[in-house]
Amino acid sequence: MKAWKNNIRSVVPYVPGEQPKSSNTIKLNTNENPYPPSPKVMELCSRIDDLRLYPDPEAGKLVEALAAYKGLDRNQVFVGVGSDDVLAMAFLTFFNSDRPILFPDITYSFYDVWAELFRIPYETRPLDDNFFIRKEDYYGENGGVIFPNPNAPTGVLMPLSEICDILDHNQDVIVIVDEAYIDFGGVSALSLLSSYENLLIVQTFSKSRSMAGMRIGYAMGSPELIKAMNDVKYSFNSYTMNRPSILLGAASIEDEEYFQETTQKIIHTREWVKEELRDLGFVFPDSAANFIFASHKTVPAKEIFEAARAENIYVRYFARERIDNYLRITIGTDEEMKALIDFLKRFLNSAR
Ligand SMILES: *Cc1c(COP(=O)(O)O)cnc(C)c1O
Question: If you measure from the C-alpha of residue 83 to the centroid of ligand 1, how many angstroms do you get, rounded to a whole number?
């Protein structure tokens, strides 16, 4: 082997859900929103000019819109290219201890990828048998804590009181709550920011705001945390967010009525899909997200996944210990979900 090969970094990358080439599909595999962004976003989209100019390095318009919307100071908001970028920056900025950072064994599968990439020691803590995070598992010395709320891919929501408890037991490290799905009925930890300077909350425009393709994410925390993140960000690249993302993100924030209408629609659809799945013999933890993590009592998940795919219905299947008999089903439109339920009725009948 050539000696220079010894110095090449080899990493196992995150594997995102499949993006089918055909448009003739029902796509319920990557938790995208089935509805378009606000009409105000779409209207502004056609009027964006000045693309020849570099964007505002501080993305001031978007930071200000978010700060006003959340009732924060602008020095408490950090924006990035999707929350994946924000989270990666947060790992780099805050997880620099020799002690391991802690996160659940079943969770967003990017966390261990970043820990490996940045050489951050980490340990996972198993969810209980009902897929709940056990708060006691996060007591004791560690290098930081991160978990999504609601958790992914389970959809399980942790009450604010338990988040407080985890913060009370982790005063010496940064605690990150990844709220990618909080707008689908959960209670955000936003109100805790005034009491905990070591809390960082991360949210995204990808799910509840129907803007996955624009890549907009943000973090909220104390001015000290936000400044530290900005210093790291500007050490990589001074123009991270593109001009359209800044403008269209701000336009989305301004249309609260549309945001409420579409998130409520998804919640409503999710609740009837839960009933239908139960009737069909599925079991699942109660979900507060825009997906349901379901297992059938008799038919293996992998078989259902493959049969659905053959009919151009895409759901997510993880060939991983503990969850390899589960499907993560994104909530689409009522029409899409009816098509899924019809397929399941046919398939499960023939499988019996
Ligand atoms: C989707 C998701 C993200 C990343 O979303 P972006 O599109 O990068 O904003 C982060 N965390 C969790 C738990 C997610 O499900």
Answer: 6
Task: Give me the helices (H) in the chain, please.
Answer: 39-45, 60-70, 82-94, 111-117, 160-168, 223-236, 243-254, 256-279, 301-310, 334-351
> Do the strands 175-178 and 145-148 form a parallel or antiparallel pair, or are they unpaired?
parallel
Pick from 84, 205, 209, 245 the residue to mutate for probing ligand 1's pocket: most ligand atoms within 8 Å of its CB.
84
What's CA 74's distance to the chain center, in Å?
23
Distance between CA 154 and CA 114 in Å, rounded? 21
The pTM of this model reads 0.96
Spatial separation of the C-alpha atoms in residues 88 and 176, rounded to whole Å: 12
pLDDT tens digits for range 90-132: 999 999 999 999 999 999 999 999 999 999 999 999 999 999 9
Ligand 1 atom 14: residue of nearest CA: 180
pLDDT tens profile 290-331: 999 999 999 999 999 999 999 999 999 999 999 999 999 999
186 CB under 6 A from ligand 1? no
Query: Which candidate, 201, 204, 210, places its Cα nearest to that of 175?
Result: 201
Q: Is 290 in the pocket of ligand 1 (CB under 6 A)?
A: no
Supply 130's token pair: 């009902």
210: its two tokens:
């129907």
Ligand 1 touching residue 180 (CB < 6 A): yes
- For residue 339, give Cα distances in angstroms to 133, 188, 227, 274: 33, 33, 48, 15
DSSP conformation letters of 16-77 = PPP--S-SSSEEESS---SSPPPHHHHHHHTT---TTSPPPTT-HHHHHHHHHHHT--GGGE
| Residue 157: DSSP 8-state | P
Q: How far is CA 239 from CA 56, 206, 230, 235, in A?
A: 7, 20, 12, 11
Asked if residue 200 lies in contact with residue 220, where contact means CB atoms within 8 angstroms, the answer is: yes
